[in-house]
Each structure stands twice: as C-alpha cells, then as structure tokens.
UniProtKB/TrEMBL annotation:
It is an enzyme of class 1 (oxidoreductase). Belongs to the UDP-glucose/GDP-mannose dehydrogenase family. One of its GO terms (biological process) is alginic acid biosynthetic process. Pathway: Glycan biosynthesis; alginate biosynthesis. The active site is at C268 (nucleophile). It comes from Streptomyces inusitatus. Its EC number is 1.1.1.132. Residues 317-424 form the UDP-glucose/GDP-mannose dehydrogenase C-terminal domain. InterPro entries: 6-PGluconate_DH-like_C_sf (IPR008927), GDPman_DH (IPR028358), NAD(P)-bd_dom_sf (IPR036291), UDP-Glc/GDP-Man (IPR017476), UDP-Glc/GDP-Man_DH_C (IPR014027), UDP-Glc/GDP-Man_DH_C_sf (IPR036220), UDP-Glc/GDP-Man_DH_dimer (IPR014026), UDP-Glc/GDP-Man_DH_N (IPR001732). This is GDP-mannose 6-dehydrogenase. Keywords: Alginate biosynthesis, NAD, Oxidoreductase.
Length: 438
C-alpha cells in the first residue's frame, strides 16, 4: 500500500520504517525539516533499538522517503497515519493543537485529491476526539462526508519505547477503531501477516482502550512500588512476595476483578486494606494508591446513590443484600451500606435477597441481621414480585435467576444495574435501564 505518515517522532518514525520494511511504499511527513532531512539521509531521527539499521535499509531501497509537503504526501498515498504529538497542557488536559492542525492540512489536500483516502489516527487521544473534533475538521476542509468520501479510523499504538521495532513486528494486540467497515479493512490490510489478536471496535472504544492500558500500567507500577516500600519497612523481601503474587494466575494475573461492577466489601478486603495502610503509616511509608482504594470504593457506591436520586422517585426496591451474590455474609456488604444510605435519605425501601432470607429462616444469620440490622430486617421480603410491585426504581445487585427472570423489559420501574446483568448489552437501549458504570 502507499502510506503517508504524519509526525516522525517515536511513533511515526517507527511506524513508517517498519511499514516500509513490510513492503509498503511510505512517505514520512514532519514540520521539522531536520527530521525530514535525517530520514532522507537514511538516518533515524530518534534513538531506538534497531531503528537506525532499519531506516538506512528502507531509505536505500526506496521504500521510505520524507517530505515537509503535505499535499505531495497525500497525492502519493491512499492511507495516512497521523502520529503527531498530543502532550499535556499545564492543567493536565490533552493538547489537540497538533492534531487539529495536521487534520486541517490533510483535509485541504484531500479536497484536491480524487479517490478515497483513509485517514488513520495513531496519536493517543481521549474518547470523542476523533468523531467530535477531528472528523468535523476533515469534513469541513475536504468538503465531503467521512465514511463515504474518505475513510477514518483510530489505530492506537502499544509499542514500548526502547523495544518498539521488536514490538511492532510482535504486537500485544492490534486495535482498529473503525468509522465504517471499509476504513477498518484498510487498517487491517496494513498489518496483514503480523501476529497478535486484531480487535475491530467503534472509534471511541479504540481511543479509550489506550487510556485503560496506560492507566493500568501506571497503576501496576505504583502498586508494586508501594508494596515494595511497605514490605521493606516491615523487613519482608518484597521481590519474594511479588514472585509468589505473580505466580497466582487465577486471582492476581488474570481477568479476575477487572470488569466494572459494584463496589467491593466483605469481611476481608476493607479490613486488610485498612490494616496494611495503617502499618505503612506507622512505618512512615507514604502509600497514596493503597490509601485511596477504599476512598475509590466509597465513591463508586456513591454513584449508585446518585443514580437513584437522579430518578426523582422515592419507592426503591433492592435485589441483593449480601456482600457477594450467592452468600449470606452481610459483614461490610456494600449493598447494606447502600441500603442504609438510601434509608437515611428517607427512601421507601423493600429488599429481597434469597440467601439472606434463607439463612434467616435457618437461624444461621438471624441474630446478626436482627440485632445489627433490625432496620433492614423489617424491609426484607421473600417475594421478588412484592419488591417489583413496590418499586418505582429498582437496584439489581444479585444474579439470582429468580430475580433476573422477573425483571421487566421497558416498562415498570427504572432498573439500576449494579452488577452488569448478563443481558446488559441488550437492555442498554431499553428505556428505564441504567448501568452503574457502563
Ligand atoms: N512515544 C511513545 O512511546 C508512544 C507510545 C504510544 C503512543 N504514543 C502517542 O503517539 C503520539 C506521538 O507520540 P511521539 O512520542 O511519537 O511524539 P513526538 O513528539 O516524538 O513526535 C511528534 C512529531 O510530530 C511532528 N508534528 C507536529 N505537527 C505536525 C504536523 N502538522 N505535520 C507533521 N508533523 C507534525 C513533530 O514535529 C514531531 O516530530 C502521541 O499522541 C503519543 O501520546 C506515543
């Protein structure tokens, strides 16, 4: 394919050289003449493992050249990869100035060019940037409709500086945010033959994936370093701890606990986080990530309260009360906290939790419920229908099949889904359905 690559920094330079190495015909574009000249001399404008040899090779073979002329690059290509910088503004917001400028320039050149060009954004940008900011610019300057007159896609890159050439040829994944199928097909064809799973998703999803990845990577490093500092202060070998931690592929290095759902609770996580943070504080070790995990959890619970408030309705049903579906353990249950908050705000509440009712019936947890939570005990009902009949708004915190099968579609109470119901994707378009964080 004939490809133009805008921005010859780390991302653009590596993408341009590697794509040329795969047999594509590539023109690199940069506003910085020094970078353009360096590439045309067969030298890399960035320091990076293997990039020097690769650029020398592909420039010598004629597969890669560079220019400062946007029009020339657009006329000589059918796909354009945008790899310009998106730095932070002083207030932390994303600077889209370079993206806007290059999009205007490409749009202007497209207005002159016949045939369908596909514009692919590789730069990291917040969800909504492509469709709400850049596509209107392209349409304005090119004078056509995205998805019809020209293609648009977002293709974030996941290469690590230092090993990016190696990562390009062996990527962890390829993500294609496609405005339309044809745009996605062009991007998929660029990487044809490379290993790794290819994900074709809506444009804003592709934009968000990059942030999920980088936020998680930062979180992982911060977590490991805080655990290291606490262990060191407590005289424990932190690397030994993390070696064993990492060996657990069921709960630790696994998809466990990584899907948006409801707040956590129970008899272990809150207690153990509190005592670990307390031990760190006593040892004068600052652990801001660990210290704020419970704060984050409370904020998530508060989101559920706000969703109820937003409905403006007073009669509330709650399905589920124990801290985890399928148990009768009410200790530090976030659903108990939610019920107590709503009661405190004067909501008229009815609660159903089959496991809690059963354990009450058997006498197992009766004392706990009746002495510790008498205000909730009197709101518990064994009937799913009774809750549904009472409620103008219903909170679903359980996967109990008896509850799921009784939930209405479309009419009836507003359904606030706290757990991402098995049919959440289908329900999202139904009136009266609200997901907690989806
Ligand atoms: N560096 C990384 O490892 C990495 C990894 C993944 C994603 N990203 C993202 O990729 C994007 C690029 O990052 P980078 O590190 O390569 O940036 P960089 O600052 O190294 O390079 C950006 C290049 O774009 C050029 N440029 C600016 N405006 C231009 C225009 N109108 N036309 C042509 N060229 C123009 C600049 O001169 C510069 O050479 C950013 O959004 C970044 O967040 C970077």
């Amino acid at each position: 394919m004939r490809i133009s690559v805008f921005g010859l920094g780390y991302v653009g330079c590596v993408s341009a050289a590697c794509l040329a190495g795969m047999g594509h015909e590539v023109i690199g574009v940069d506003v910085n003449q020094v970078k353009v000249d360096l590439v045309n001399e067969g030298r890399a404008p960035v320091v990076e493992e293997r990039i020097g040899e690769l650029i020398a090779e592909v420039v010598a073979s004629g597969a890669l050249r560079a220019t400062g002329d946007v029009r020339e690059a657009i006329m000589g290509s059918e796909v354009s990869l945008i790899c310009v910088g998106t730095p932070s503004e002083p207030n932390g917001s994303l600077c889209t100035t370079y993206l806007e400028r290059v999009t205007e320039q490409i749009g202007t050149a497209l207005a002159e060019r016949g045939g369908r060009q596909t514009v692919v954004f590789r730069s990291t940008m917040l969800p909504g940037t492509c469709l709400k900011l850049l596509v209107p610019i392209l349409e304005k300057y090119a004078g056509g409709t995205a998805g019809v007159d020209f293609g648009v896609a977002v293709n974030p890159e996941f290469l690590r500086e230092g090993t990016s050439v190696r990562d390009f040829f062996d990527p962890p994944k390829t993500v294609i945010g496609e405005l339309d199928r044809a745009s996605g097909d062009v991007v998929a064809a660029l990487y044809d033959g490379l290993p790794g799973e290819v994900f074709r998703v809506p444009v804003p999803t592709a934009e968000a994936i990059k942030y999920a990845d980088n936020a998680f990577h930062g979180l992982k490093i911060g977590f490991a370093n805080e655990m290291g500092a606490v262990c060191q202060a407590l005289g424990v070998d932190s690397h030994q701890v993390m070696d064993v931690f990492l060996a657990d592929r069921k709960l630790n290095i696994s998809p466990a606990y990584l899907r948006p759902g409801f707040a956590f609770g129970g008899s272990c996580l809150p207690k153990d986080l509190r005592s670990l943070v307390h031990a760190a504080q006593r040892a004068d070790v600052s652990v801001p990530i660990l210290s704020n995990v419970l704060t984050s959890n409370s904020a998530h619970l508060q989101r559920a309260v706000e969703l109820v408030e937003r409905t403006g309705r007073r009669r509330v049903g709650l399905f589920g009360l124990s801290f985890k579906p399928g148990t009768d353990d009410l200790r530090e249950s976030p659903l108990v906290q939610l019920a107590e908050t709503l009661l405190g705000k004067g909501y008229d509440l009815r609660i159903h939790d089959a496991h809690v009712s059963l354990s009450r019936l058997l006498g197992a947890n009766r004392e706990y419920i009746e002495t510790r939570l008498p205000h909730l005990a009197q709101l518990l009902t064994e009937s799913v229908d009774e809750v549904l009949e009472h409620a103008e708004v219903c909170l679903i915190g359980t996967r109990d099949p008896a509850v799921l099968s009784a939930l209405p579609h479309g009419d009836g109470p507003v359904l606030i889904d706290l757990i991402h119901l098995p049919d959440a994707d289908a329900r999202r378009t139904e009136p009266g359905y609200v997901g907690l964080a989806w």
